[in-house]
Protein backbone atom coordinates (compact mmCIF):
# COMPACT_ATOMS: atom_id res chain seq x y z
CA UNK A 1 0.00 0.00 0.00
CA UNK A 2 1.38 3.41 -0.91
CA UNK A 3 1.33 6.31 1.58
CA UNK A 4 -1.47 7.95 -0.41
CA UNK A 5 -3.59 4.80 -0.22
CA UNK A 6 -2.92 4.42 3.50
CA UNK A 7 -3.90 8.01 4.25
CA UNK A 8 -7.05 7.75 2.13
CA UNK A 9 -8.05 4.49 3.79
CA UNK A 10 -7.72 6.15 7.20
CA UNK A 11 -9.83 9.18 6.37
CA UNK A 12 -12.36 8.15 3.75
CA UNK A 13 -14.90 6.89 6.33
CA UNK A 14 -14.91 10.50 7.60
CA UNK A 15 -14.36 12.56 4.48
CA UNK A 16 -16.18 10.49 1.86
CA UNK A 17 -15.06 11.81 -1.51
CA UNK A 18 -14.17 15.26 -0.22
CA UNK A 19 -10.45 14.63 0.36
CA UNK A 20 -7.93 14.97 -2.44
CA UNK A 21 -4.16 14.86 -2.94
CA UNK A 22 -3.15 13.21 0.36
CA UNK A 23 0.64 13.18 0.87
CA UNK A 24 3.06 12.15 3.57
CA UNK A 25 6.46 13.75 3.86
CA UNK A 26 8.80 13.58 6.85
CA UNK A 27 5.99 12.73 9.26
CA UNK A 28 3.68 15.46 7.96
CA UNK A 29 0.41 14.43 6.29
CA UNK A 30 -1.27 16.97 4.03
CA UNK A 31 -4.43 16.97 1.97
CA UNK A 32 -7.04 19.18 0.32
CA UNK A 33 -10.57 19.02 1.68
CA UNK A 34 -13.60 20.24 -0.26
CA UNK A 35 -15.96 21.75 2.31
CA UNK A 36 -18.59 23.03 -0.13
CA UNK A 37 -22.04 23.10 1.46
CA UNK A 38 -20.88 22.25 5.00
CA UNK A 39 -21.82 24.51 7.89
CA UNK A 40 -19.07 25.98 10.07
CA UNK A 41 -19.67 23.33 12.76
CA UNK A 42 -19.66 20.45 10.29
CA UNK A 43 -16.44 21.75 8.77
CA UNK A 44 -14.71 22.01 12.14
CA UNK A 45 -15.85 18.53 13.15
CA UNK A 46 -14.69 16.95 9.88
CA UNK A 47 -11.33 18.69 10.16
CA UNK A 48 -10.84 17.53 13.77
CA UNK A 49 -11.91 13.94 12.98
CA UNK A 50 -9.57 13.72 9.99
CA UNK A 51 -6.68 15.05 12.07
CA UNK A 52 -7.35 12.52 14.81
CA UNK A 53 -7.57 9.64 12.30
CA UNK A 54 -4.27 10.61 10.65
CA UNK A 55 -2.41 11.25 13.91
CA UNK A 56 -3.40 7.72 14.95
CA UNK A 57 -1.16 6.36 12.18
CA UNK A 58 2.27 5.45 13.60
CA UNK A 59 4.33 7.56 11.17
CA UNK A 60 2.20 10.74 11.19
CA UNK A 61 3.28 13.47 13.61
CA UNK A 62 1.63 16.49 12.03
CA UNK A 63 -1.39 17.15 9.77
CA UNK A 64 -2.06 20.04 7.38
CA UNK A 65 -5.48 20.41 5.80
CA UNK A 66 -6.16 22.96 3.08
CA UNK A 67 -9.88 23.61 2.77
CA UNK A 68 -11.50 24.68 -0.46
CA UNK A 69 -15.05 25.63 -1.13
CA UNK A 70 -16.61 25.80 -4.53
CA UNK A 71 -18.47 29.05 -4.85
CA UNK A 72 -22.08 28.15 -5.52
CA UNK A 73 -23.64 29.69 -8.53
CA UNK A 74 -26.84 30.35 -6.64
CA UNK A 75 -29.71 32.18 -8.21
CA UNK A 76 -32.34 34.34 -6.60
CA UNK A 77 -35.89 34.48 -7.93
CA UNK A 78 -38.30 36.97 -6.38
CA UNK A 79 -42.06 36.65 -6.17
CA UNK A 80 -43.67 40.07 -6.15
CA UNK A 81 -47.06 41.71 -6.39
CA UNK A 82 -48.22 45.26 -6.76
CA UNK A 83 -50.62 44.96 -3.83
CA UNK A 84 -51.13 42.88 -0.71
CA UNK A 85 -53.36 39.89 -0.20
CA UNK A 86 -53.24 38.53 -3.75
CA UNK A 87 -51.65 35.25 -2.69
CA UNK A 88 -47.99 36.01 -3.30
CA UNK A 89 -46.84 34.10 -0.19
CA UNK A 90 -49.06 31.12 -1.03
CA UNK A 91 -47.60 31.02 -4.53
CA UNK A 92 -43.99 31.38 -3.29
CA UNK A 93 -44.35 28.52 -0.77
CA UNK A 94 -46.08 26.17 -3.19
CA UNK A 95 -43.62 26.90 -5.99
CA UNK A 96 -40.70 26.22 -3.65
CA UNK A 97 -42.24 22.88 -2.67
CA UNK A 98 -43.03 21.93 -6.28
CA UNK A 99 -39.48 22.82 -7.36
CA UNK A 100 -38.00 20.80 -4.48
CA UNK A 101 -40.10 17.81 -5.46
CA UNK A 102 -38.73 18.18 -8.99
CA UNK A 103 -35.21 17.88 -7.58
CA UNK A 104 -34.19 21.54 -7.40
CA UNK A 105 -32.23 22.39 -4.25
CA UNK A 106 -34.25 25.39 -3.23
CA UNK A 107 -34.23 27.70 -0.22
CA UNK A 108 -37.11 30.00 0.73
CA UNK A 109 -36.78 33.57 1.98
CA UNK A 110 -39.71 35.41 3.45
CA UNK A 111 -38.83 39.02 2.84
CA UNK A 112 -42.32 40.26 3.54
CA UNK A 113 -41.57 42.83 6.21
CA UNK A 114 -45.21 43.82 6.61
CA UNK A 115 -46.69 40.39 7.25
CA UNK A 116 -44.27 37.48 7.13
CA UNK A 117 -46.45 34.44 6.61
CA UNK A 118 -44.02 31.75 5.47
CA UNK A 119 -43.47 30.30 8.99
CA UNK A 120 -47.17 29.44 9.11
CA UNK A 121 -47.30 28.15 5.53
CA UNK A 122 -44.22 25.98 5.99
CA UNK A 123 -45.06 24.92 9.56
CA UNK A 124 -42.00 26.50 11.18
CA UNK A 125 -43.82 28.98 13.40
CA UNK A 126 -42.06 29.73 16.67
CA UNK A 127 -38.69 28.40 15.48
CA UNK A 128 -35.65 30.61 15.73
CA UNK A 129 -32.59 30.49 13.53
CA UNK A 130 -29.20 30.67 15.20
CA UNK A 131 -26.12 32.27 13.75
CA UNK A 132 -22.64 30.96 13.08
CA UNK A 133 -19.70 33.05 11.91
CA UNK A 134 -22.07 36.07 11.93
CA UNK A 135 -24.37 34.34 9.46
CA UNK A 136 -27.86 33.04 10.02
CA UNK A 137 -28.43 29.33 9.58
CA UNK A 138 -31.72 28.64 7.81
CA UNK A 139 -34.39 26.58 9.51
CA UNK A 140 -35.09 23.17 8.02
CA UNK A 141 -38.74 22.95 7.09
CA UNK A 142 -40.47 19.59 6.90
CA UNK A 143 -40.56 19.89 3.11
CA UNK A 144 -36.79 19.60 2.68
CA UNK A 145 -36.57 23.33 2.08
CA UNK A 146 -34.29 25.47 4.25
CA UNK A 147 -35.98 28.77 4.98
CA UNK A 148 -35.64 32.08 6.76
CA UNK A 149 -38.34 34.59 7.53
CA UNK A 150 -38.42 37.92 9.26
CA UNK A 151 -41.18 36.21 11.22
CA UNK A 152 -38.50 33.93 12.72
CA UNK A 153 -36.59 36.94 14.00
CA UNK A 154 -39.38 38.54 16.00
CA UNK A 155 -41.66 37.11 18.66
CA UNK A 156 -45.03 35.84 17.36
CA UNK A 157 -47.59 38.62 17.39
CA UNK A 158 -44.94 41.29 17.92
CA UNK A 159 -45.58 44.32 15.73
CA UNK A 160 -42.95 44.86 13.11
CA UNK A 161 -42.17 48.40 12.08
CA UNK A 162 -39.20 47.77 9.82
CA UNK A 163 -38.32 50.88 7.93
CA UNK A 164 -35.77 51.85 5.31
CA UNK A 165 -32.24 50.82 6.22
CA UNK A 166 -33.33 48.58 9.08
CA UNK A 167 -35.54 46.57 6.75
CA UNK A 168 -32.74 46.52 4.17
CA UNK A 169 -30.27 45.14 6.73
CA UNK A 170 -32.68 42.50 7.93
CA UNK A 171 -33.39 41.36 4.37
CA UNK A 172 -29.67 41.34 3.60
CA UNK A 173 -29.08 39.00 6.53
CA UNK A 174 -31.69 36.59 5.23
CA UNK A 175 -30.22 36.53 1.74
CA UNK A 176 -26.58 36.30 2.87
CA UNK A 177 -27.28 33.43 5.27
CA UNK A 178 -25.57 30.03 5.14
CA UNK A 179 -27.68 28.49 2.41
CA UNK A 180 -25.46 25.43 2.07
CA UNK A 181 -25.94 23.64 -1.22
CA UNK A 182 -29.12 25.49 -2.24
CA UNK A 183 -28.87 26.31 -5.93
CA UNK A 184 -31.94 28.52 -6.03
CA UNK A 185 -33.46 30.93 -3.53
CA UNK A 186 -37.09 31.96 -3.84
CA UNK A 187 -37.86 35.25 -2.09
CA UNK A 188 -41.38 36.27 -1.12
CA UNK A 189 -41.15 40.06 -1.42
CA UNK A 190 -43.16 42.60 0.54
CA UNK A 191 -46.23 43.65 -1.48
CA UNK A 192 -46.04 46.98 -3.23
CA UNK A 193 -43.49 48.99 -5.14
CA UNK A 194 -41.77 51.18 -2.58
CA UNK A 195 -38.17 51.99 -1.67
CA UNK A 196 -37.69 48.82 0.38
CA UNK A 197 -38.46 46.64 -2.63
CA UNK A 198 -36.42 48.77 -5.01
CA UNK A 199 -33.29 48.87 -2.85
CA UNK A 200 -33.58 45.13 -2.15
CA UNK A 201 -33.67 44.21 -5.81
CA UNK A 202 -30.97 46.72 -6.73
CA UNK A 203 -28.67 45.33 -4.05
CA UNK A 204 -29.28 41.61 -4.48
CA UNK A 205 -29.85 41.52 -8.24
CA UNK A 206 -32.37 38.70 -8.64
CA UNK A 207 -32.11 36.58 -11.79
CA UNK A 208 -35.80 37.03 -12.42
CA UNK A 209 -39.16 38.02 -11.00
CA UNK A 210 -42.53 36.29 -10.94
CA UNK A 211 -45.54 38.60 -10.60
CA UNK A 212 -48.70 37.44 -8.89
CA UNK A 213 -51.99 39.22 -9.47
CA UNK A 214 -55.68 38.60 -9.01
CA UNK A 215 -57.70 39.07 -12.19
CA UNK A 216 -59.49 42.34 -11.41
CA UNK A 217 -58.43 45.59 -13.08
CA UNK A 218 -57.23 47.33 -9.94
CA UNK A 219 -54.91 44.49 -9.01
CA UNK A 220 -53.63 44.43 -12.56
CA UNK A 221 -52.83 48.12 -12.50
CA UNK A 222 -50.77 47.46 -9.38
CA UNK A 223 -49.13 44.46 -11.04
CA UNK A 224 -48.09 46.75 -13.89
CA UNK A 225 -46.43 49.02 -11.33
CA UNK A 226 -44.52 46.04 -9.97
CA UNK A 227 -43.37 45.21 -13.49
CA UNK A 228 -42.17 48.81 -13.93
CA UNK A 229 -40.18 48.49 -10.72
CA UNK A 230 -38.39 45.36 -11.96
CA UNK A 231 -37.78 46.94 -15.33
CA UNK A 232 -36.22 49.95 -13.62
CA UNK A 233 -33.80 47.64 -11.84
CA UNK A 234 -33.16 45.54 -14.98
CA UNK A 235 -34.61 42.40 -13.43
CA UNK A 236 -36.08 40.09 -16.10
CA UNK A 237 -39.78 39.30 -15.71
CA UNK A 238 -40.22 35.52 -15.82
CA UNK A 239 -43.97 35.89 -16.16
CA UNK A 240 -47.33 36.58 -14.56
CA UNK A 241 -49.49 34.27 -12.47
CA UNK A 242 -53.20 34.82 -12.05
CA UNK A 243 -54.39 33.80 -8.61
CA UNK A 244 -57.91 33.49 -7.20
CA UNK A 245 -59.54 33.12 -10.60
CA UNK A 246 -62.76 31.16 -10.93
CA UNK A 247 -64.49 29.94 -7.77
CA UNK A 248 -66.06 26.52 -7.78
CA UNK A 249 -68.90 26.33 -5.26
CA UNK A 250 -68.11 23.39 -2.97
CA UNK A 251 -71.85 22.67 -2.70
CA UNK A 252 -73.28 22.91 -6.21
CA UNK A 253 -70.07 22.78 -8.26
CA UNK A 254 -70.99 25.89 -10.24
CA UNK A 255 -67.98 27.98 -11.25
CA UNK A 256 -68.23 31.75 -10.78
CA UNK A 257 -65.63 34.48 -11.18
CA UNK A 258 -65.82 36.84 -8.19
CA UNK A 259 -62.72 38.73 -9.34
CA UNK A 260 -63.20 38.08 -13.04
CA UNK A 261 -60.85 35.81 -14.94
CA UNK A 262 -58.28 36.02 -17.67
CA UNK A 263 -57.20 39.59 -16.82
CA UNK A 264 -53.64 38.66 -15.94
CA UNK A 265 -53.25 36.52 -19.04
CA UNK A 266 -54.49 39.36 -21.24
CA UNK A 267 -52.24 41.84 -19.43
CA UNK A 268 -49.23 39.54 -19.83
CA UNK A 269 -49.98 39.18 -23.51
CA UNK A 270 -50.38 42.89 -24.10
CA UNK A 271 -47.09 43.63 -22.34
CA UNK A 272 -45.28 40.78 -24.06
CA UNK A 273 -44.53 38.70 -20.95
CA UNK A 274 -45.16 34.98 -20.51
CA UNK A 275 -48.29 33.91 -18.69
CA UNK A 276 -47.26 31.20 -16.23
CA UNK A 277 -50.64 29.91 -15.08
CA UNK A 278 -53.96 30.43 -13.40
CA UNK A 279 -54.73 29.27 -9.86
CA UNK A 280 -58.41 28.99 -8.93
CA UNK A 281 -59.91 30.54 -5.83
CA UNK A 282 -60.31 27.38 -3.82
CA UNK A 283 -61.09 27.11 -0.16
CA UNK A 284 -58.97 23.94 0.00
CA UNK A 285 -55.91 26.06 -0.91
CA UNK A 286 -56.58 28.44 1.94
CA UNK A 287 -57.26 25.71 4.46
CA UNK A 288 -54.21 23.65 3.54
CA UNK A 289 -51.97 26.72 3.52
CA UNK A 290 -53.17 27.95 6.89
CA UNK A 291 -52.60 24.48 8.31
CA UNK A 292 -48.94 24.46 7.22
CA UNK A 293 -49.54 21.82 4.55
CA UNK A 294 -49.42 23.72 1.24
CA UNK A 295 -51.31 21.81 -1.48
CA UNK A 296 -48.21 21.33 -3.67
CA UNK A 297 -46.81 19.05 -0.96
CA UNK A 298 -49.61 16.51 -1.18
CA UNK A 299 -51.21 14.72 -4.08
CA UNK A 300 -54.23 16.99 -3.75
CA UNK A 301 -55.73 18.15 -7.03
CA UNK A 302 -55.34 21.79 -5.88
CA UNK A 303 -51.58 21.31 -5.96
CA UNK A 304 -51.38 20.40 -9.62
CA UNK A 305 -51.35 23.96 -10.99
CA UNK A 306 -48.39 24.85 -8.78
CA UNK A 307 -46.43 21.92 -10.21
CA UNK A 308 -47.29 23.05 -13.74
CA UNK A 309 -46.13 26.60 -12.99
CA UNK A 310 -42.96 25.26 -11.33
CA UNK A 311 -42.23 23.26 -14.50
CA UNK A 312 -42.44 26.51 -16.52
CA UNK A 313 -40.10 28.16 -14.05
CA UNK A 314 -37.63 25.30 -14.48
CA UNK A 315 -37.76 25.70 -18.24
CA UNK A 316 -36.91 29.37 -17.77
CA UNK A 317 -34.07 28.53 -15.38
CA UNK A 318 -32.67 25.97 -17.82
CA UNK A 319 -32.41 28.45 -20.65
CA UNK A 320 -28.72 29.20 -21.11
CA UNK A 321 -29.17 33.00 -21.07
CA UNK A 322 -30.15 33.03 -17.41
N1 LIG B 1 -56.03 30.51 -4.77
C1 LIG B 1 -56.44 30.71 -3.54
N2 LIG B 1 -57.63 30.23 -3.10
C2 LIG B 1 -58.06 30.45 -1.84
N3 LIG B 1 -57.40 31.16 -0.93
C3 LIG B 1 -56.21 31.68 -1.31
C4 LIG B 1 -55.67 31.48 -2.60
N4 LIG B 1 -54.46 32.12 -2.65
C5 LIG B 1 -54.26 32.66 -1.44
N5 LIG B 1 -55.31 32.42 -0.62
C6 LIG B 1 -55.51 32.88 0.75
O1 LIG B 1 -55.56 34.29 0.72
C7 LIG B 1 -54.91 34.85 1.87
C8 LIG B 1 -53.80 35.79 1.41
O2 LIG B 1 -52.82 35.02 0.73
P1 LIG B 1 -51.27 35.32 0.90
O3 LIG B 1 -50.91 35.53 2.32
O4 LIG B 1 -50.54 34.27 0.14
O5 LIG B 1 -51.23 36.69 0.11
P2 LIG B 1 -50.05 37.75 -0.01
O6 LIG B 1 -50.21 38.39 -1.33
O7 LIG B 1 -48.75 37.13 0.29
O8 LIG B 1 -50.46 38.73 1.14
P3 LIG B 1 -49.56 39.80 1.91
O9 LIG B 1 -49.89 41.07 1.24
O10 LIG B 1 -50.09 39.73 3.30
O11 LIG B 1 -48.16 39.41 1.79
C9 LIG B 1 -54.42 33.66 2.68
O12 LIG B 1 -55.36 33.34 3.67
C10 LIG B 1 -54.36 32.52 1.65
O13 LIG B 1 -54.52 31.23 2.25
TrEMBL record:
Q: Which CDD domains match?
A: Mrp_NBP35
Q: Name one Pfam family in it.
A: ParA
UniProt: ATP binding residues: 82-89
Top-level lineage group: Bacteria
Keyword list (alphabetical) reads: ATP-binding, Hydrolase, Iron, Iron-sulfur, Metal-binding, Nucleotide-binding
One GO BP: iron-sulfur cluster assembly
Single Gene Ontology MF annotation: ATP-dependent FeS chaperone activity
This chain's function reads: Binds and transfers iron-sulfur (Fe-S) clusters to target apoproteins. Can hydrolyze ATP.
What family does this belong to?
A: Belongs to the Mrp/NBP35 ATP-binding proteins family.
What is the protein name stated in its UniProt record?
A: Iron-sulfur cluster carrier protein
Q: Which organism is it from?
A: Sphingomonas cavernae
